[in-house]
Backbone:
């Protein structure tokens, strides 16, 4: 059976594309790294892929605000393609900078196919510092996200961002996110309890680390699942009893499996 | 036509840069500063009308959830409290990478050709009773500006 084709979107300043490619390959996908100009020039067609991933990095130097310029490029140059891709239920993931892009492009929270008015944002960490370290995450029990299906354990993944503080536009948006099962990941302490800084590295409202759209196919998160694919990625693998698989791998496997079933 | 756009954080949003500069000022040994507000400035030379510049602000330069902006006038700050204003700009001839990115970003709004140049600067509003311009000068020199590539100017604002 054909492996699902994964489009890993690249642009100036993307720097986690190779790890993300590796993750999808381990998950039995068929990933390709594609520069956005290839799509704008129509040398590549988004619709010919099964999964879209916007990896981490510092697109356009994080100038003006993280992810803003790439978000506008998606919204104004590729709007229709992206909207169709997401609306037909194909899996989309944005990691770190990619999450900032999905939110600022209006694909997340995604109350409409592309939210005209920004419903949430990711802004500077409360600490005003770039936070780069391992953190703990709990997967919300009632979330609808296909990417985290079946994952119940407390996850440990690294974060590496300066602008990761999630803020919804208003309380109504936060209530909608919760009621729709769109809150997917929340920062916790090592015991899985919600806690302030440093467990919550950026001051996100309700410790939100990742959300999905109402359909559950578009997923964005600040931590880096592609940096925890085997136990050897973990700083304490010699001291702690860890499984062979890293905590991030299942997220990629879920999307690849979902695409395979969808294709049948 | 040259437009000067100021972007600042809304009142209910934490100004993380301002807070961190405030801490650094205290570490310099200057205890007279009580609060710092940071403001991003864009000086845009463009053949655009006001409505187009307004669109550029809304769609590219600001985050509508956390920030507010004004064109050709300063964003609001607590003018009644004693304060000194420090502005930091790149020296002539130094590459302004963020300014270049604004031109790149304007491409997606189909107004790239109309922009001749973009310069970016930062304004710091230093609040504090009895803060002197000499102290503001020290803060600008030691903390806010890198003298090799940046210039600063100090505006007395409202002195106590």
Residues:
């Amino acid at each position: 059976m054909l492996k699902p084709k994964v489009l890993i979107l690249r642009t100036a300043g993307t720097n986690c594309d190779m790890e993300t490619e590796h993750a999808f390959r381990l998950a039995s996908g068929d990933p390709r790294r594609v520069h956005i100009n290839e799509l704008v020039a129509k040398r590549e067609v988004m619709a010919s892929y099964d999964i879209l991933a916007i990896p981490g990095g510092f697109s356009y130097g994080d100038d003006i605000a993280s992810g803003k310029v790439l978000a506008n490029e998606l919204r104004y140059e590729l709007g229709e393609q992206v909207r169709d891709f997401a609306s037909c239920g194909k899996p989309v993931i944005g990691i770190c900078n990619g999450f900032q892009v999905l939110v600022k492009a209006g694909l997340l929270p995604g109350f409409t196919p592309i939210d005209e008015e920004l419903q949430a944002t990711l802004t500077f960490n409360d600490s005003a510092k770039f936070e780069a370290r391992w953190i703990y995450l709990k997967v919300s029990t009632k979330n609808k996200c296909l990417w985290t299906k079946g994952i119940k354990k407390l996850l440990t993944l690294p974060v590496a961002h300066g602008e990761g503080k999630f803020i919804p536009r208003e309380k109504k948006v936060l209530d909608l996110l919760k009621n729709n099962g769109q809150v997917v990941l929340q920062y916790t302490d090592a015991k899985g309890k919600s806690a302030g800084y440093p467990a919550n590295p950026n001051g996100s409202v309700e410790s939100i680390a990742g959300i999905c759209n109402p359909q559950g196919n578009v997923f964005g998160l600040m931590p880096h699942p592609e940096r925890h694919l085997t136990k050897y990625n973990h700083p304490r693998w010699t001291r702690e009893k860890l499984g062979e698989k890293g905590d991030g791998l299942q997220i990629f496997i879920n999307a690849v499996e979902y695409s395979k079933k969808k294709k049948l | 036509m040259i437009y000067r756009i100021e972007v600042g954080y809304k009142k209910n949003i934490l100004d993380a840069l301002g807070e961190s500069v405030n801490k650094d000022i205290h570490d310099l040994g200057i205890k007279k500063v009580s609060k710092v507000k940071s403001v991003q400035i864009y000086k845009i030379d463009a053949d655009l009308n006001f409505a187009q510049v307004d669109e550029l602000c809304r769609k590219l330069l600001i985050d509508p959830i956390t920030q507010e902006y004004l064109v050709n006038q300063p964003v609001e700050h607590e003018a009644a409290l004693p304060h000194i204003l420090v502005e930091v700009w790149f020296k002539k001839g130094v590459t302004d990478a963020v300014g270049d990115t604004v031109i790149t970003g304007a491409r997606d709004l189909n107004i790239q050709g109309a922009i001749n140049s973009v310069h970016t600067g930062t304004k710091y509003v230093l609040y504090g009773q009895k803060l002197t311009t000499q102290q503001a000068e020290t803060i600008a020199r030691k903390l806010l500006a890198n003298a090799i590539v940046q210039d600063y100017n100090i505006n007395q604002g409202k002195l106590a």
Summary: The longest helix of chain A spans residues 249-263.
